[in-house]
What does this fold into?
Amino acid sequence: MRLGVISDVHGNRHALEATLDRLTVLGIDRLVCAGDIVGWGPEPNACVELLAERDVVAVAGNHDLIVLDRLTDERCSSLARDTQRWTRTVLRDDARAWLAQLPEQARVGPIMVAHGSLEDPQEYVRSEARAAEQLEELRRREPDAQLLVLGHTHQPWVVTQGMGTRSRTTPSRVRLDDRRSLLNPGSVGQSRSWELTPHARFAVIDLHADVVQLEEVAYDWRAARDRVRAVGLPHEAIHARPKSPARLLRRAAGVAQGLARVGARATTDGVAVADHRPEVH
It folds into this structure.
């Protein structure tokens, strides 16, 4: 069985459509979503429709729960709160009802799915130490589960017990074994990476081959930006770049790498194409 794994759609229809189209090409048997279907982006109803019409196994993310008034927004940025308030005003009753029936955790074969962590949909699991704790908690809760899927950080990641980080890069391919692993597919609709144009990120799990593929796909971000402007939301609603000093340093390194790749392509192909997709930790 091949599973398409997505997270953090955030109301970005253009990114979601490009992701679903790519997953169709890659060939999947079922779709899994680790939450945050709405919030931030300009088309929450369309994103709910696209997922509701598929046989998706989805959990509720913190933004979904906040829009449903099941969580407070006190841990959100002011911009996130603004987009959540706007989402409440446009979310249709049928979309709200579909979101309301989503669990906070779900099981698909040997895979456990949650949003932030097994304990808290608002927790960011970023360190290897915390990932190891989550995998140990997975062992206690679901002894026969081998893979934990989380979202929320917006950054792709595969980490395995006893081995640490296997990959943070898209595209990449990681072979699994009998040790438990944590997978974050990255964000479909709210790239937090320093890149010239935002990409949608997702994963494919091949349960027969024991392989995880971290993937990315370009989408019509200009159309998404135009839609954001049309509804009166800021452009960060589809691409909020990281602002911490450490990430700024990584951005400089990533830009240099991107320019080097552009130069290499110009040399080999005679055409300079911006292709800046740095690895972000």
Notes: The radius of gyration is 18 Å. The chain has a mean pLDDT of 89. The CA atoms of residues 250 and 280 lie 7 Å apart.
